[in-house]
Specification:
The complex is a heterotrimer of chains A (about 270), B (about 280) and C (about 270). By secondary structure, chain A is mainly α. Chain A has one domain: Orthogonal Bundle (MetI-like fold), CATH 1.10.3720. Helices cover about 75% and strands about 0% of the residues of chain A. Chain A has ten helices and no strands. In chain A, α3 packs antiparallel against α8, α3 crosses α9 and α8 packs antiparallel against α10. The longest helix of chain A is centred in the C-terminal third of the chain and has 35 residues. Chain B is α/β, with parallel strands linked by helices. Helices cover about 40% and strands about 20% of the residues of chain B. In chain B, β7, α7 and β8 form a beta-alpha-beta unit. In chain B, α8 packs across α10. The longest helix of chain B has 18 residues. Chain C is mainly alpha-helical. The radius of gyration of chain C is 28 Å and the shape is flat. Classes of the chains: A mainly alpha (about 270), B alpha/beta (about 280), C mainly alpha (about 270).
Chain lengths: ~270, ~280, ~270
């Protein structure tokens, strides 16, 4: 090897994040083209936006003070309905997702069961809660039951997938040790698998409760009952001060649920 | 020279970490600061460049009083003091070169540093330092791809590119294996010798301190209990600093080890450097 | 002699002591009671005849949905493009706003813990608590129906999400790296760029792509309240009972969602 050093000063430039030049330029040009196309084809009716600004200001001022009183009974009804839906749907969803989740774990389920459970999860996860809600409202009629079914179904997708992944990630040697004692399949699940996945799953259950509450506030918009319906009505009537009150209540409850679920999670773990 | 007078630090928790420390470090002196965990070694070093604000006392470096500096002047002052950290403290997702050049941040403007446009003289100096520690072929590697010893070399380059008047070294060998620890300590000592740099080295390994420092200061519960040459560090002194333990073996072992290391010392660095530079 | 008289009590093993056992039992009882009560209230408001009729309804609906009206796909390219734009532009807007908010909310970078941080945290909570559909509902009444309302709705909803994850990432950085940069005499802005930004960059990119993926999913439904995209067509088809078009749109939505999920997984993999 040569020890000769170049006489000229060595230049240094920060090496680019993407090393292949053609890829880098394709990405940069592609992003620029996409952005200009996207902005160019997005039609904004600025006249309508301008017209709406006073209404926006009116909406913001409606927060000071929000009107809790004039629609109080509807608000209380809506909130209560939302809370029932949330609790019931979380419980049912989690109970149903346990077998689906176990079935969708590659390391313990036989292949046909695995594919079946995975496709259930995929369908449940692909659709927004709102789309599901539209169909369930068609099937079960207006009211909280449709919302309840929607949220339960969505919970299966969320919880089942995470449970399956957790089981797939577990420490195989611990489970093997339990099997080596001659335990039956259910005993094996109970002693070898459950202790490993339980702490995280309790935490995720509480987290899902939190998500379900937020989602249940919107399934009402398409007829699934709860506070969403009340909110939708107040927007339709331009009753911004009642809407402001509802939004504040939603924020308060979400915060309360989030904090208490965070606290509970720490307590459980 | 660095002059510390009556340095006291009380943390907000109420703990009195330093109880009026006086140390003078003349130019070119390599001083080791030893003592048990919690003695305040780290606090002393961090008070000097005010990463920790001293509660009272004065610190002067070549006639500039540090404790009273405004934040702008403090930044200019920090440029004159290089610091080497425990666990390297490299910015792991930046490249080796960026880490070394970050030592020049105090000298360049924000936008210049943001665009990585450092003056060519800084870049030359960075390459020279990296070559000196045998890492110039790794300039564009990310810092987290390096081994512990290599990272600490980069850390040393980052401190030296500041062209400092004083080197603050905080537990440089805490996460290195014994061999690499010696190499790093030797490198620091050599570089200080080359540049006539004063250094304060926090170190918990008494043996290494004796091998590489010209002067040792022992700290215990925020007070200086020993200040003198390494060979006066008797078992009685160590007991005073660290508490009761069989120190005789530590000291003897240090002596035993020191002999062969000193023998090969002139040869090792250049071979080592060549090996690291990928030349052998 | 004496030892004969001593009776050694059998050791009883229980998983939990009596008090814990009781607490666990009580928690189960309470949980079950709450569930039964909630379900009871829902069932009171349900017309069970409809529910029992649902399977028949489902079969009927299903039969009306096949085969999907494939020819209608030509009318859907524009809504799909709009949906994509709502998600992407909304994500970009949210990032621009979320980054400074995250910086203000993180305990180690905030300019003031007492004043700025609570404000930033409140913005995050408010943005997160309100579903994008509700944001869209509000914005449609204010700025009028269309893609613009959708973009803003997605943007507003995503601010909280991005800012929350980002400020948590900022709080988890290794402070010693920041300290090392500060010790070189770097200004606060330089310390941020050299010490903090490289550390949170991967998290930031991951969060962005993750949120973009979620936003694709959410923007498919914003049209239901008039905020543009494919949801608008879906709503129209459902109200007019064009079920074969509906099934086509559902397939398109699934395809889009799966595709975006694939892209986001790829990109995140490349980053990490």
């Amino acid at each position: 090897m040569s020890l000769a050093l170049p006489a000229a000063p060595r230049r240094w430039k920060k090496p680019p994040a993407i090393k292949r030049a053609w890829l880098r330029w394709t990405l940069i040009v592609g992003a620029a083209v996409y952005l200009s196309l996207a902005l160019g084809t997005t039609h904004v009716n600025w006249a309508r936006v301008w017209e709406g600004l006073p209404r926006g200001i009116q909406f913001i001022t409606a927060f000071l003070p929000p009107d809790f009183t004039s629609r109080w009974t509807e608000i209380v009804e809506g909130i209560a309905e939302t809370l029932w839906m949330t609790v019931a749907a979380t419980v049912v969803g989690i109970v149903l997702s346990v077998p689906v989740g176990i079935g969708a774990a590659r390391n313990i389920a036989p292949l046909p069961v695995y594919y079946f459970c995975r496709s259930v999860l995929a369908v449940s996860r692909s659709f927004q809660e709102i789309i599901l809600a539209i169909f369930f409202v068609k099937l079960f009629g207006f009211g909280p039951f449709a919302g309840f079914v929607t949220l339960s179904f969505a919970t299966i997708g969320f919880y089942g997938k995470l449970l399956a992944e957790d089981i797939e990630d577990m420490d195989a040697s611990q489970a093997e040790a339990v099997r080596a004692t001659g335990a039956g399949w259910l005993q094996w699940l109970n002693y070898g698998v459950q202790p490993q996945v339980m702490p995280r799953m309790i935490g995720l259950g509480l987290y899902r409760l939190d998500i379900n509450f937020r989602e249940s506030a919107v399934v009402g918009i398409v007829g699934g009952g709860g506070i969403g319906a009340t909110l939708n009505t107040s927007f339709d009537r331009y009753e911004f001060d009642s809407a402001a009150a509802i939004i504040l209540i939603i924020i308060a409850i979400v915060m309360a649920v989030e904090y208490s679920s965070g606290y509970l999670r720490r307590w459980v773990q | 020279m660095l002059r510390i007078k009556g340095l006291t630090k009380r943390y907000r928790t109420g703990d009195l970490a330093l109880k009026g420390i006086d140390i003078d470090v003349p130019d070119g002196q390599v001083m080791a600061l030893i003592g048990p965990s919690g003695a305040g070694k780290s606090t002393v070093i961090r008070c000097i460049n005010r990463l920790v604000e001293p509660t009272s006392g004065t610190i002067t470096l070549n006639d500039t009083e540090i404790v009273a500096l405004s934040s702008g002047n403090l930044r200019r002052m920090r440029r004159r003091m290089g610091m080497i950290f425990q666990e390297y403290a490299l910015v792991e997702r930046l490249s080796v070169m960026e880490n070394v050049l970050s030592g020049r941040l105090g000298y360049v403007g924000f936008w210049q540093s943001w665009a990585r446009k450092f003056p060519q003289s800084d870049i030359d100096e960075a390459f020279r330092l990296l070559a000196r520690v045998g890492l110039d072929h790794m300039a564009d590697k990310r810092a987290d791809e390096l081994s512990g010893g290599q990272r600490q070399r980069v850390g040393i380059c980052r401190a030296l590119i500041q062209n400092p008047e004083l080197l603050l070294v905080d537990e440089p060998t805490a996460s290195l294996d014994p061999k690499t620890s010696r190499q790093i300590m030797r490198l620091i000592k050599e570089l200080c010798g080359e540049r006539k740099l004063a250094a304060i080295i926090n170190i918990h390994d008494v043996m290494l301190a004796q091998m590489f420092a010209e002067r040792i200061v022992g700290l215990k519960l925020g007070e200086i209990v020993y200040d003198g040459p390494p060979d006066k560090l008797t078992p009685a002194v160590l007991t005073e600093i660290y508490g009761e333990e069989d120190w005789a073996s530590t000291i003897r072992k240090a002596d035993d080890d020191a002999e062969p290391v000193d023998e090969v010392a002139p040869a090792t660095p250049s071979i080592e450097r060549d090996r690291l530079a990928g030349l052998t | 002699m004496m030892s004969d008289a001593i009776v050694i009590p059998k050791k009883v093993w229980q998983r939990r002591d009596r008090k814990t056992q009781f607490a666990v039992w009580l928690a189960w009882l309470f949980g079950t009671a709450v569930f039964v009560y909630c379900f009871q209230l829902i069932s009171e408001r349900t017309i069970w005849a409809f529910v029992l009729d649902a399977p028949a309804q489902a079969v009927d609906l299903g039969s009306r949905m096949v085969p999907p009206a494939w020819g209608y796909i030509h009318y859907l390219w524009r809504p799909i493009w709009d949906t994509l734009n709502i998600a992407t532009l909304g994500t970009i807007i949210s990032i621009v706003i979320a980054v400074p908010i995250a910086y203000c909310a993180a305990r180690n970078t905030t300019p003031s813990v007492a004043f700025v941080r609570p404000v930033a945290l409140f913005i995050i909570v408010a943005s997160r608590s309100i579903n994008s559909l509700i944001w869209a509902l509000m914005l449609v009444t204010i700025v009028g129906p269309g893609v613009f309302a959708g973009i803003i709705a997605i943007g507003l909803r995503s601010i909280g999400f991005v800012a929350k994850l980002l400020y948590e990432a900022i709080e988890e950085i290794d402070e010693s790296q920041v300290e090392a940069v500060r010790a070189t005499g770097a200004s606060p802005a330089q310390t941020t760029v050299y010490g903090i930004v490289p550390q949170v960059m991967p998290a930031f990119a991951g969060i962005t792509v993750f949120r973009w993926d979620i936003n694709i999913r959410e923007s498919t439904v914003l049209g239901l309240v008039g905020a543009g995209g494919i949801g608008l067509e879906l709503n129209a088809a459902i109200t007019q009972l064009y079920w074969t078009q509906v099934s086509l749109m559902l397939l398109v939505i699934i395809a889009t969602v799966i595709l975006s999920e694939w892209v986001s997984a790829k990109v995140r993999h490349a980053i990490i």
